Each structure stands twice: as structure tokens, then as C-alpha cells.
Amino acid sequence: MIDNEGYRANVGIVITNDKHQVLLAKRYKQNSWQLPQGGIDQGESDVEALLRELNEEVGLEPHHVDVIAKTPKWLRYDLPEYHVRRSQKPICVGQKQVWFLLRLTASEDKIKLDTHSDIEFDEWAWVDYWNPIEKVIDFKKYTSIHIGGKHSVKVINEIGDFKKYTILGRGNNLLISNNPKPLAILGEEFDYILQKNRKLIVGAAVSSGKLLTYCKKNNIANFELLAKLPGNMGGLVKMNAGLKQWEIFNHLHSIKTQNGDILKENIPHTYRHTQIDGIIYEITFDIESGYCKDQQKTFNTMRDNQPSLPSAGSCFKNPKDTHSAGYMIEKAGLKGYTIGGMAFSSEHANFLVNMGDGTYDEAIKLIKLAKQKVLEQFNINLELEIIII
């Protein structure tokens, strides 16, 4: 409905939950997120339009929400001139909107995006209204273990103080809780590979697969261990990733953090562990020539025993000077042991696998059970390798 001044009447909908979060929805087959809204039809009141759009766009009925507030007057905005279609009558020069604030009183499983044939959105998420949203990630799809909800994530494209954020990589060793701390990822500004003065300079957002391909193409040795080792280089360096005696630190020269460049010899590190404080933005490696395809095949073979079901890699670190974590979990009777949709793999006991519909709570129960059983039988406290946020 377009008025005499050329403004299309529209209702905007802000839906909140009991955590004071706001519902955002992603446009169908687009990478843009917005609040639900829609036009007011001829002869329709703003409240009637609200209830119709509420059902059409997110599947909610009137009894699923409480109306908390409404803007007291129309809010107008003008379209850019190049979007105004002068050939159409009546001419639409912009929109006038009335906004409603709603509280969801029903279970969130009542939110449905496919109740009508003309689908507006294909994803939705709760976000904190005071944080500018830069990206929404569905962690059930993003993480290799396929557990987690949809959360807003800050994209970092500059070096700065981001201590309040937990930095994510590719989600390969990650178990996301139902209420994670503020999350962030490194953006495209940190996705680069350079060679300078016999040094290999790598942005922390570079994937292991991308660096492996680069080294193979440029005949650079000592990166064969990245074969079938998923993740971003920043995360792999921070956890000193590797396989047995091969570690990412073996050929590291330095890293760059908010505090500047730090040489390898000034970074305390041990097997699968470092004492790196803060975000890694850049990594510098020493270059040696001679990429070895046979070495890559060896690493591929060594990792071929890993389960095919969704997992977050090794659940526990292997303790020093004793049995492996997988051996102790198996001897404790937990190989193949299942709670709900989660299990310790029947192929490799140190892999926590998702059987299909596993949940965070089920994963935590299995982790606690394994720690308890191994402590009772071997008097060893297993240390987590999987990262829980």
C-alpha cells in the first residue's frame, strides 16, 4: 500500500527471548540478515499486517508472542534515486514503517521458515542486540563434530585488543556449548602466504590445506605433516599441532601478536601445548627446499585410522611416558560406549563421535565418564585436546 506521498506502508518486527536477545533471519539463498518485516495490504491495519507477516515469515501464531511496544509514529526512509522506478504507477519513493517489539512466549521450535510457499528466509539466529553483528554461524554445520547452535561472530580484520573474544579457526577441534563466550574469527586480511629472505610468512587465517598446496607447488619442505590435518594455521601453531615427533614448532621462526613479533625461543611450548597469550595474526617459518611426496603419503596413512563419523579429532592429549589416551579409554571399557547420540568411536577410542543427533550435554557426560574411569584404573588425569567453549 503506497500513500499519496509515495511511501509504502510497512511493519517491522523485533522478536526477543528471555535472554534479551533479538531474532535475525537470513534472506532466502542470500548472505544478508535482517529483522522480519513486510508491507501493509490495502484495508489492513498495522496490527493485522503484523500478525500476518509474523506467520508468513517465521511461522509464529498470535498466542506465541506478547506485544510489548510499538513506535508511536511512522518512521520514513527514502530510496536512492537509482532504485526509484519512475515508470511504475503509483511511484514508490521510500517506505514508512511502524515497528513492533514482541516477546516470544512459546518454545523456539515454533519458529518455522517454510510454512508458506513464498519463503522469505532460510536461517535464523538469536543475537545480542548491543553487539553489531558481522556474521552468524550455524555451528552444527560449521564444526566437524556437528554440534552447536547459531551464534553471532565478530570478524577481525585488523590487529588490536580483542581479549574478550574466543578466536575460532575452522571448527575442527571445537565443542560449542549452549551459551558460548563472545566469539570471533580472523577475516580475509589475515589470509595470505609470502616468501621473503628465505622465510615463509603466513597469515593466521590461512588453512592448513592451502599452505600444504602452496608448499608442494613451491617445493618447500617440512610441511608434509599438514596432510589431513584440518584447521587454520593460527590455531595449529597455538596448540603446537602435529603427529608424534613431528610438530608445527619444529620449523617455526616467530609469530606476530598484538604485542609485536615473538621469536620461537621466547615461546614456552611442549607437546600439544604453548603459552602464547593472545591472538596470533601472522606466523613466520624457516624455509628448506625439497617437498617430499612420500612423507606426505606417510602422514596420510598414519591418519587413515581416524573415524569417518563427525568428530572433533582426538578428545584427550596422550600423556607422557605411559599408555596412549585411546588405549586407556579402551581398557576402561569405553571403546564404542554410547550416551544418546554421542559415542567413543569403536574404531579409535580417543575419538568422540557424533552418531547423528548428538548433543553438547551428551558429549560432556562422556568426557567426564572417561576422565573418571581412567583416573580410577590408571591413576592418570586425562587432559583435554578438544577445545570446549
Q: Would you give an account of this structure?
A:
The chain is α+β, with helices and mostly antiparallel strands and 389 residues long. It folds into four domains: 7-123, Nucleoside Triphosphate Pyrophosphohydrolase, CATH 3.90.79; 135-188, Uridine Diphospho-n-acetylenolpyruvylglucosamine Reductase, domain 2 (2-Layer Sandwich), CATH 3.30.43; 190-299, Uridine Diphospho-n-acetylenolpyruvylglucosamine Reductase, domain 3; 308-388, UDP-N-acetylenolpyruvoylglucosamine reductase, C-terminal domain (Uridine Diphospho-n-acetylenolpyruvylglucosamine Reductase, domain 1, Alpha-Beta Complex), CATH 3.90.78. It has seven helices and 27 strands. The longest helix has 19 residues, at 360-378. It is globular and about 80 Å long. It starts with 6 loop residues before the first strand and ends with a strand. The mean pLDDT is 90.
